[in-house]
Amino acid sequence: MNIDDTKNSAGQNDSNSLCGVFKEYSAGIKQALIEQSYTKPTPIQEQCMHPISEGKDVIGIAQTGTGKTAAFSLPLLERMIANDKQFKTRNPKVLILAPTRELASQIGESIEKYGKNLPFRHTVIFGGVGQKPQVNALRRGVNILIATPGRLIDLMDQGYVHLEDLACFILDEVDRMLDMGFIHAIRRILKVVPQDRQTLFFSATMPPSMEKLALSMVRKNPVRVAIAPKEPTVDRINQTLFHVPKNNKINLLLKLLENSDLEKVVVFTQMKHMANRVAKKLQGNGFPCAAIHGNKSQSARTKALQDFKTGSSRALIATDVAARGLDINKVTHVINFDLPIEAETYVHRIGRTARAGADGEAISFCGRDEVDQLKSIEKLLRKPIPEKETPELPKVESQNRDDEFSNRRRPPQRRFSRKPNSNNPSVSKRSPRNRSRNRQS
């Protein structure tokens, strides 16, 4: 047997490890799947492969952590292979919209991995960074464009992005996009892209208003793929609840992190300033961590995620910018330092753990002013979250309104403690401003 025969035999054996629709993909995609040790499709991936690769419109609904990105990117690449000449142009033929920079980057990484053996170019554009490298990539020619709505429209207005030749339009995490107020941006983009295009619409939830929007975007008779859309949470997640005063939450968090079982932890806060305070407190107590939220620069957000993924940071302190779409492997625990305002957000938060078949644990802190939020969450789950007895913690003075871990804000300080007494002759009146002099200076 010669060397080529040996290679072919090894490749055949590797291909035999693939299951379900993964066996039907082209050789380049199969090889990429094998290299990623990705051999068994999830239900959403199994059911989306044929309609997407055949060019049909699809409305896909599946809870977080079920592999929606691969569900549309793999069959999309398969369709591009089958229509090679159609998709090899300088202007984008595929547009994938995502609500956050992190999710857009993650989709770009997936396209990079699955399409590494294919002759198609892709790039990711989003705000918070300089646009010059993105513009240069667009000028070189791009087949697949992954973007956040704001930066996309900005570059469209500057004449760098042309969507008139688009063949496929994909919206990922659409419910999150609507929550973030991107509906007007989406409608503006829809006016530019061709009517006779393939549209893929993916979301974790599908309320009636969103269903109406989806049907207005797709062509007639779209394929609807719904994988347990009414299931509120992942059964493998062990959920527990601590009732704790708000200004003692940080002490409880420090106490819990003394347990080495909390190896890789995402801590969610409601406010950006609180994420910074929690991160600073944990770092001061010897726990490597980083904060990620909308006020952070993109380079800081990228570094925080990278450190967390590689294990340099034990904890990622985040607002809900990290609650949706982000796929971080082996997150052992999610801690809700603050309960979310929307009950559905709780489900998305805890979905950062127990991904790809693993187990996980979600721990929530509930202060007295969060009881109504807890009731809404338990109503959505249709069961109470099991309570745990709060361990003994350092006593915190309850009257201390300026405690840095209380969400109460200090009242604004007056500029002057009291008005000058006009009857007091010792107080001189302020001379009128010389406006002409100010103009000259």
Summarize the structure.
By secondary structure, the protein is of the alpha/beta class.
- Shape annotation: globular
Rg on CA atoms, Å: 26 Å
Helix content: 25-40%
- Please identify the structural class as seen in this structure: alpha/beta
Task: Indicate the CATH architecture of the largest domain.
Answer: 3-Layer(aba) Sandwich
Description:
- It is a single chain.
- The chain has 441 residues and is of the alpha/beta class.
- 39% of the residues lie in helices and 14% in strands.
- A 7-stranded parallel β-sheet has the order 3-4-2-5-6-1-7, with helices on both faces. Strands 8-13-12-9-11-10 form a 6-stranded parallel β-sheet, sandwiched between helices.
- The chain is globular and about 70 Å long.
List the helices and strands and how they pair.
Blueprint: H1 3-15, H2 27-35, H3 43-53, E1 58-62, H4 68-82, H5 84-87, E2 94-97, H6 101-114, E3 122-125, H7 132-140, E4 144-147, H8 149-157, E5 168-171, H9 174-179, H10 183-192, E6 198-203, H11 208-217, E7 223-227, E8 237-243, H12 249-257, E9 265-268, H13 272-284, E10 289-292, H14 298-310, E11 315-318, E12 333-336, H15 343-350, E13 360-366, H16 371-381, H17 435-440
Parallel strand pairs: 1-6, 1-7, 2-4, 2-5, 3-4, 5-6, 8-13, 9-11, 9-12, 10-11, 12-13
Helix pairs in contact: 3-4, 4-6
Which structural traits does this protein have?
single chain, 441 residues, alpha/beta, six-stranded parallel beta sheet, 14% strand, disordered N terminus, disordered C terminus
